[in-house]
């Protein structure tokens, strides 16, 4: 990748639209644009101030391609830190392509995926974790993932890491200085203060590492498995939650044989509901595979909804209670919501009975929608969104998670070294290793492979 090229790409979504934006970045962006743009006021683009907008035409020789608005952002006051030109043209695919081709013939090159943001990073406009947040922001599709990406992009997370890194760096230098005076047996680094810092860093690292559990499910949707015996209304409930006829519903027991999943945002948080094959003893091979999968889905789920039919409860209440106990014993730590479905089919006496026999039972009719909203509220309350509400830093990126784990490991070694009084040179090595892991997150330490991996996941034009 040559950083001196002037790159170009469509910044808006591909396809026809009212307006499309084509973006150029690089040393020659403004001079190339000035050759191909004819201002209606005969302005020379190269002589215009930064952050100005100009009306005119993109010309291929004498041929007018489109009437456009051109925005100028001059180095260093731009997204990439280079000269940037944005051309707002009419959104026909033909016009977009004509303009792109024209600029490619006149000294621009197509941008690679994420290359604008890569340049922003290389020019110090963003640190690495902020650059990664840009991709998260573009892919965020609910309030929670949007909020986390915004916070990371503003630098909340990396500034926390950068601060700790700086303090640690200070101590590393002091301890390394001691090594130069090894014969004199001096201590420049106050061990008590150092121990405090190490404790503080461990604490922050642990908190960030823990937040990944929440962050990851928020980013990917919180998996909720809907389980129960055949025919109790699991698929009907899935459809009610999604507000769409997603799964086949029928009065035949064993209708759903494979798991069916879909996502929906509730209260700003993405939930992934998983409808499963009803659990029962069966000789049917396909159904058995489905039931085995049901248990796998329970393992993976963050929340389990156990459903039974009120109608059947009347005749065989003990059976459901035994089933329920089985699930509770098998997955003691999983949040479980127990639902009596089909309440539209039974009388109030039975409802009262069920509530007495199974406390915490949630009454619902998947068919009429009664109790569905209360269920979604319950789900929201179950998810620990405290950290989210308090605007705490939440980690969603696996790369950061790995680096934080490794940093914590190194910090633990430093702590152990302090406790056991190991020599300064060995401690210095552990501190350097921890510093390296911090640096990987913010991008103080990088290599081409790391950058390649990160930016390859971006879209072209960002
Ligand atoms: N009256 C009433 N009928 C319901 C309700 N929920 C589901 N049903 C009916 O119960 C039958 C079974 O519903 P499904 O949603 O297919 O049940 P399931 O648990 O997915 O069944 P399997 O996929 O076979 O395990 C269908 O005829 C539904 O219309 C309800 O709340 N009230
Ligand atoms: Mg079903």
From TrEMBL:
GTP binds at residues 231-236, 250-256, 275-278. Its cofactor is K(+). Binds 1 potassium ion per subunit. The gene is mnmE. PROSITE patterns: G_TRME. GO terms for molecular function: GTP binding; GTPase activity; identical protein binding; metal ion binding. Belongs to the TRAFAC class TrmE-Era-EngA-EngB-Septin-like GTPase superfamily. TrmE GTPase family. This is tRNA modification GTPase MnmE. Its main location: cytoplasm. Homodimer. Heterotetramer of two MnmE and two MnmG subunits. It comes from Bizionia arctica. Keywords: Cytoplasm, GTP-binding, Hydrolase, Magnesium, Metal-binding, Nucleotide-binding, Potassium, tRNA processing. It holds the Pfam family TrmE_N. It comes from the Bacteria. (6S)-5-formyl-5,6,7,8-tetrahydrofolate binds at residues 23, 86, 125, 462. Mg(2+) binds at residues 235, 256. It is found in: Cytoplasm. NCBIfam families: mnmE_trmE_thdF, PRK05291.1-3, small_GTP.
């Amino acid at each position: 990748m040559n950083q001196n090229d002037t790159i170009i790409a469509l910044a808006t979504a591909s396809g026809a639209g009212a307006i499309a934006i084509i973006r150029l970045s690089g040393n020659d962006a403004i001079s190339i644009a000035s050759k191909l743009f004819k201002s209606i006021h005969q302005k020379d683009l190269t002589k215009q101030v930064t952050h100005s907008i100009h009306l005119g035409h993109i010309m291929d020789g004498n041929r007018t391609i489109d009437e456009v608005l051109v925005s100028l952002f001059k180095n260093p006051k731009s997204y990439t830190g280079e000269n940037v030109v944005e051309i707002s043209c009419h959104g026909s695919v033909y016009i977009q392509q004509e303009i792109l081709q024209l600029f490619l013939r006149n000294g621009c090159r197509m941008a690679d995926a994420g290359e604008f943001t890569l340049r922003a990073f290389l020019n110090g406009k963003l640190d690495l974790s902020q650059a990664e947040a840009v991709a998260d922001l573009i892919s965020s599709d609910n309030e929670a993932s949007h909020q986390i990406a915004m916070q990371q992009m503003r630098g909340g997370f990396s500034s926390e890491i950068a601060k700790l890194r700086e303090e640690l760096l200070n101590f590393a230098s002091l301890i390394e200085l001691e090594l130069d005076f090894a014969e004199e047996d001096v201590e420049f680094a106050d061990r008590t203060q150092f121990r405090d810092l190490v404790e503080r860093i461990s604490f922050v690292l642990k908190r960030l590492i823990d937040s990944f559990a929440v962050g990851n499910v928020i980013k990917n949707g919180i998996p909720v498995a809907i389980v129960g015996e055949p025919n109790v209304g699991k698929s009907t409930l899935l459809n009610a939650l999604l507000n769409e006829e997603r799964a086949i519903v029928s009065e035949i027991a064993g209708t759903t044989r494979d798991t069916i999943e879909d996502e929906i945002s509730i209260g700003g948080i993405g939930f992934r509901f998983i409808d499963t094959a009803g659990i029962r003893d069966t000789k049917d091979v396909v159904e058995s595979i489905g039931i085995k999968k049901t248990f796998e889905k329970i393992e993976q789920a963050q929340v389990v909804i156990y459903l039974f039919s009120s109608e059947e409860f009347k005749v065989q209440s003990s059976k459901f209670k035994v089933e329920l106990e089985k699930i509770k014993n098998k997955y003691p730590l999983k949040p479980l919501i127990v639902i009596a479905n089909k309440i539209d089919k039974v009388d109030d006496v039975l409802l009262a009975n069920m509530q007495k026999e199974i406390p915490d039972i949630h009454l619902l009719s998947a068919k009429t929608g009664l109790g569905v909203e209360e269920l979604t509220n319950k789900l929201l309350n179950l998810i620990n969104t405290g950290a989210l509400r308090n605007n705490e830093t939440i980690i969603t990126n696996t790369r950061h998670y790995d680096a934080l784990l490794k940093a914590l490991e190194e910090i633990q070694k430093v702590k152990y070294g302090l406790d056991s009084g190991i020599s300064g040179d060995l401690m210095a090595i552990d501190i350097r290793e921890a510093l390296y892991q911090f640096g990987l997150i913010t991008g103080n330490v990088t290599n081409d492979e790391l950058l390649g991996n990160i930016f390859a996941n971006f879209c072209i034009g960002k």
